[in-house]
Amino acid sequence: MPGYSTRNERVSIGGHIYRLRVLTDKQQFSDPDGHADRLGISSAQWSLFGQVWPSGRLLAQAMHRFDISQKRVLELGCGIGLASLVLQHRGADVVASDVHPLAEAFLAYNAALNELPALHYRQLRWNVPLPTLGHFDLIIASDVLYEIDHAELLAGVVKQHAYPKAEVLVTDPGRGHSNRFSRLLEMQGFTLEEKRCPMDDSDSPPFRGRLLHYTRTGETH
């Protein structure tokens, strides 16, 4: 036994059913060798990677529609990796990344569960440079601005890994740090188009969810 329990979940994105192995609930925890703790993942945070969150569904839906032609895509904080699986299903050039020690195994299992080729995965700590990761045309993430320092950390990742002409797309459930992130990306030459979105079926206007789409043309003036 791995020390935690799982269940299977079915999620419909763009009319296609994705089968996912997820953690049974948010009470799961298993870190026998202290690996997660050394990465800064507390017992309270440990299970968060293994759930399908509303922002993750929203990002996956966006990736079902997004123009991915000739674009190299990086997902930050992929967790279960639903958005990356949608991109893989569409034939995109995608790299999924997370810091959680189990994210890679769950992603590989879920790719196989959906009869998809194995995804490219890199363990990425936002505060530790990883030059071999390379550069991307599109960087995506869902609900990653939940702590006060995440705006600076994520802006730093974008600065390191976005091409001069690039896009960044983040889904956010209305947390308080997205404005700081937007200002930091504006300093890097990105412009923002923001769309309010329902986070679930019970959400009513004005919707708390945000789809933040940043674009940088790469042109110099």
UniProtKB/TrEMBL annotation:
Enzyme Commission (EC) number: 2.1.1.60
Organism for this UniProt entry: Dyella caseinilytica
Xref: InterPro entries: CaM-Lys-N-MeTrfase, Methyltransf_16, SAM-dependent_MTases_sf
GO biological process: methylation
Pfam family, one: Methyltransf_16
GO molecular function, one term: methyltransferase activity
Family matches, as PANTHER family: CALMODULIN-LYSINE N-METHYLTRANSFERASE
Annotated segments matching region Disordered: 196-221
Highest taxon above the source species: Bacteria
Gene3D superfamilies: Vaccinia Virus protein VP39
Key words of the record: Cytoplasm, Methyltransferase, Transferase
Protein name per Swiss-Prot or TrEMBL: Calmodulin-lysine N-methyltransferase
Keyword Cell inner membrane: no
